[in-house]
Amino acid sequence: MLKHQKSNKPTTASELRAHAEDRLRYKPETNAVLSYSKDELLRLNHELSVHQIELEMQADELRYSSDLLALSNADLEASFSQYADLYEFAPSGYLTLALDSTILQVNLTATKMFGVSRSLLKGNRFITFVSVADQATITKMIADVFLTTEHQFCEVTLISDENHFPGLHHTFSGHTIRIDATLSPDSTECRAIIIDITESKKAAIAALELSEERHSSLFKHMLNGIAYCKMIYSDGRPVDFLYEQVNLRFETQTGLKNVEGKKFSEIIAGTPDPNTELLELYGRVAASGKPERFEVYIDAMKMWFEGSAYTLQSDHFVAIFDNITERKLAELALKKLSVTVEQNPSMVVITDAHGAIEFVNASFTETTGYTLEDVKGKNPRLFKSGITPKALYDELWQTILSGNVWRGELQNTKNNGELYWESEVISPVLDTDGKIINLVGIKQDITAQKRLLSELSVAKEKVKEAELLKAAFMANISHELRSPVSGILGFSELLKSPDLSKEELLEYNDLIFKSGERMLHLINDLVDYSRIEAGESMLQISTTSVNQVMSDIAAFFTHEVDRQKLRISFTAGLPDSKSIIDTDGSKLHQILTNLIQNAIKFTTSGAIEFGYTEKNKMLHFYVRDSGIGIPLAMQVKIFERFRQVDNKLTQHYKGSGLGLSISKAYVELLGGTIRVESEEGKGSTFIFTLPYNPIHNAVTNPNETLSAAKDSVLRTQHSALSSTILIVEDDDASRYLLQKMLKNESMNILYANNGREGVDMVEDHPEIKLVLMDLKMPIMNGFEATKLIKQKHPELPIIAQSAFSSLEVRRKASEAGCSALISKPIKKDELLEKMHEMLEKKPELHLW
Ligand code: ADP
After folding, report:
1. Model-level pTM greater than 0.70?
2. Distance of CA 468 from the midpoint of ligand 1 (Å)
């Protein structure tokens, strides 16, 4: 409801206007509206729009009231004046416009904004006050208001036209205003509210400019490469893209220049098939709008990139990326290195600066048995064997801590406790300040090498020793040969003297004989030794009476022992019947002979005892003396060839240094072992074993068991023979010796110089009862001749003689038909005994 107030206000419109203009003049606070913000202005505008509508409604009401209710003029005017004030002094300008923009009404605020008095404004067209470009905007807006009857708005810039309105001060010149227009209720005019938005627009433009500047500076200065691109499709598939815009870094990151406006395929020349992985990714992003990260290798560029792709616009994408080629290559190099380290055949151990293990490779685990889990965080002292001297570790740490590389060899322990040798290189890894950050140890297991080296040096020592031994042996042998030879020659010379007494003659003769025997002994040793060395020493197993061998040997040495003023005795460990075994009797004989000869040689007083006992299916033989004894250090060595104890006590004893090695070889061939127990100055006991395989019911042939002793000289007296025999021999001296040996036998001796002659002689002389056949002869050898003779005269005994009585020779002689073989130098007694056997008793007996 309107309140009607009495007032003395002017009643006519012109009076009212003049009155309002006055008021405005005295109302400077209305200018405050100009300092309002855009939001405030909008709010005020809204308020005023509401007020305006309210005013219009009230005006209608007033009119209606005055017409219908005939209110007093005074009341109406009072009310009207109140709303007129609101209209005139509103913070926005109000205009009422005709379709052609003619200003019909204008409030005070609007006149101030235009800087033109109301009288000048009214009747003029609004478009006259705006720039030419904006005139059409206003015209269109007003037309739209009338056309659509809906609210329209636009923004235009005011101008002042000094010429058109001379003398006017136009404060708002160049200001931007917003015009909101609505059609009047009766559709005859258009009402416009004008707000000055110059300041807020400026602020908005400034903000936009700032933001744009920031973005473009970001785009320009970002360290990543940025490319704004348009995707190119073919049949719906992304096949290429176009660089629309790139930043400065794009060039540094890719090395590509002037790419804007060009296609990817054009830029990366020589790649008809551009990187599909990349294209697919960009295509996906451009199509879906979903950003994606990528890490991609572009083969044509030989470069790695990492980044992300976004979309701002459809079919477009922005790629923000970094060239990570260097890092990638470093990573790959590192990967290569780590594979190299992991797969290295050398052991690799890496620790931190304090020695805590960080890494061990497969080879380390393989060699030591320690896995990375076992040793991680632990100190390598875990592997210490305790054998490597502390000084070496001190040196190691000193070297490493001073930043140097240490090289050396250590003995460490494996997980299973086993010791091993390693050759190691330990290098400190320094940071840029020279501070140690890691220690890298590269090691090799050199245990096998070490063992080989030590074996090699032992072998070398042995070779050296063997060479020395051989040299000593050669010197010894030449001495051993020379002495008897010079004895033989010397005494033979003396024998020539005409005035020799019978005693002297016998003595010289004895000395010559002994020298010969000594030589023979040496030669026999050498032959046996070379047979053993050549692996030719074969066994000839026969039924042997061990007790018989023992008593034969005792008998053989009695004479010599007597001469040396020693005693000899033997003890048989078994009764005769149980002492018969299958063995090589000859070798057993030789072993015992060697040991007893040594015992006699190295004993000056006392007794030699020998014998055997049976224990655990073995015969334990012993030869004990009370001689000089053997130093402990030599007790094993003397069984090696050429070994002789070299000291004051032994220096005047003779020998080849072969006897014990031959004995040892024979004992072992027969299935036993040999050793010595001895104390220096007190004597020695040599002990050897042989398997005991008794032959209980054996009917022993004394000749067989004796065969082993056949090499020894049997001092048997033989009755004289009276038969014709044939000697087939090419060597004069040998023939002569035989002749002399047989001179007391009443024999008719025929001679042949070679096998051929021998065969003929047998044919020509049927009275021949026995043939002594040398084996090595010119024209026809003894084997051939024997065969031919035996073909016609199988009963005729043929005794072969040879300086080479190797097994091979014996076998061949036997095959050819020889009844027996005696070795040269021929011993008279042995020869006679064999001849007697052949001629008198058992000419058919083959003595093998
Ligand atoms: P040889 O006696 O010909 O030198 P052997 O092989 O038979 O060669 O013996 C080797 C060495 O063993 C002898 O030189 C001697 O030093 C020592 N030896 C052997 N038997 C005895 C022993 N019964 N008493 C002391 N030393 C001995």
Report:
1. no
2. 18
C-alpha 608 – ligand 1 centre gap (Å): 15
State the pLDDT confidence band at 844, using cuts at 50, 70 and 90: very low
CA of 76 to the centre of ligand 1 (A): 167
Identify which of 477, 523, 602 to mutate to test ligand 1's pocket (most ligand atoms within 8 A of the CB): 602
Tell me what pLDDT residue 743 has: 80
Residue nearest to atom 23 of ligand 1 (CA): 599
Residue 115 and residue 168 in contact, taking contact as beta carbons nearer than 8 Å: yes
Can you say whether residue 433 is alpha, beta or left, with left for phi > 0 and alpha for psi between -120 and 50 degrees? alpha
Pocket of ligand 1 (CB under 6 A): 598-599, 602, 625, 627-628, 630, 638, 643-645, 650, 655-661, 684
H or E, element range at 192: strand 190-196
d(CA 3, CA 61): 12
CA of 476 to the centre of ligand 1 (A): 14
For 210-260, list the strands marked E by DSSP.
225-234, 237-246
Task: Tell which atom from ligand 1 comes closest to the C-alpha of 627.
Answer: 24
Quote the DSSP letter at residue 33: G
Integer Cα distance of 332 and 338 in angstroms:
10
Express each pLDDT in 422-469 by its tens digit.
Answer: 999 999 999 988 899 999 999 999 999 999 999 999 999 989 988 887
- Is the bond preceding 575 in cis, omega lying within 30 degrees of 0? no
Phi and psi at residue 474, to the nearest 5° = -60, -45
Query: Positive or negative, the Cα torsion across 16, 22, 23, 25?
Result: positive
Mean pLDDT of 229-247: 90
Q: Give the Cα separation of 43 and 37 in Å (integer).
A: 10
Tell me, in angstroms, the distance from the centre of ligand 1 to residue 638's CA: 7
- The Cα–Cα gap between 746 and 726 comes to 14
Tokens at 70, concatenated: 């005939």
Q: Which tens digit of pLDDT belongs to each residue from 731-790? A: 877 888 888 888 877 788 899 999 999 999 999 998 899 999 998 888 899 999 999 999
| Continuous H helices in 10-131 | 13-25, 38-64, 73-89, 108-114, 118-121
> Which residue shows structure tokens 């090699």?
456
358 φ, ψ (degrees, to nearest 5): -110, -30
Q: Report which ligand 1 atom has the smallest distance to the Cα of 662.
A: 6
**Which residue type sits at 202?**
K
Q: What spatial distance separates the first Cα and last Cα of the chain, rounded to whole Å?
A: 170
Residue 715 has pLDDT above 50, yes or no: no
CA 649 distance to own-chain centroid: 60
pLDDT at position 320: 95
Report CA(687)–ligand 1 centroid distance (Å). Answer: 14
- Token pair, residue 296, equals 């991609």
